[in-house]
Amino acid sequence: MPSEKKTALVTGGGSGLGYAIAKAFTGAGITTIIAGRDQEKLNAAASALGDHCYARQCDVSDFDSIPGFVNGILEEFGQIDILVNNAGINQKKGFTEVSTDEFIRILNTNVTGVFVLSREVVKDMLNRKKGCIIHISSMAAQYGLPKVIAYSASKTAIDGMTRAMAVELSPQGIRVNAIAPGFIYSAMTAKALDSDPERKARVMARTPIGHMGQAEDIGAAALYLASDAAAYVTGVVLPVDGGNSIGF
User: Fold this and answer.
1) Which residues are in coiled coils (predicted)?
2) Is position 224 annotated as part of the catalytic site?
3) Which domain holds residue 96?
């Protein structure tokens, strides 16, 4: 549990894992700004999350808008103690069917957007010599997955960025870590696996805990990494996957 009042910015916070992370943060009394492209969805999420949550529109693939967005957050809230780079896009398509534009679009959102937003937030963190950045990685960076070439490339890049940022920024008081979610339950993942019994059997067979995770598991991991309990943790890519990444 954080020992002082903190402010967090969570991209893609209107639904899914981002929402679960924001819920964990607001539950711990952290002022949490959720950002994304859909203002209506963000407003509904912020309303559900309560008084500690604020919704602000941002498209991380619109690089030119990011400095102004971050400055606006800093003017309104004073500081950003925690940045969670959760926003991301995916595409399931055969390797040779992926167009160059499609590949670049996914890397722009999942990698370049993370870099640009982190760069702008870090400028303020450096002034205060403190801060915490959490990237969201994936099992696609832990082992090979078919038909997600751009996503796999982007999340592997995130792992490398996590380590490089940690080495450069941790001496300045800024910790940088990542979470690599395993198979997390949602209506979408359940439908996908239920419609493909063979794939579902493979997922369960190599997950030692024997069931899918919950979004709350990712929220709890993010809260830990953002808290003073993780003060000596940096440069880590933490699998939260029921053992899937080491399963046989």
Assistant:
1) none
2) no
3) 7-184+214-240
